[in-house]
Amino acid sequence: MSHQETKDKLSDAMADALELCSEQWKDLKRTTRKDVVQHCDAFKDKDRKALRTLRSLEDKGLL
After folding, report:
1. Domain total for the chain?
2. Residue 22 region, left (φ>0) first, then alpha (ψ -120 to 50), else beta?
3. What is the 3-state secondary structure (H, E, C) of 1-63?
4. Digit-coded pLDDT (tens) for 1-33
5. Which of 1, 15, 23, 52 has the maximal Cβ count within 10 Å?
6. Is the overall model pTM greater than 0.85, yes or no?
7. Which range of residues forms the domain containing residue 42?
8. Distance from C-alpha of 24 to C-alpha of 11, rounded to nearest angstrom
């Protein structure tokens, strides 16, 4: 599966997290699960879900 196909199949929450990571990376900043919880509505008060999402994006080769 191509990189774009993988991105196209992401849930909205995962896509939001990936977008945040991409924006932060442009400024040479790392994205933490706290960043995801703070900036992505789908993860409000869901620290463990944010961490699982970041790990999943990494496993998919998107981070």
Report:
1. 1
2. alpha
3. CCHHHHHHCCCHHHHHHHHHHHHHHHCCCCCCHHHHHHHCHHHCCCHHHHHHHHHHHHHCCCC
4. 788 899 999 999 999 999 999 999 999 999 999
5. 15
6. yes
7. 3-59
8. 20
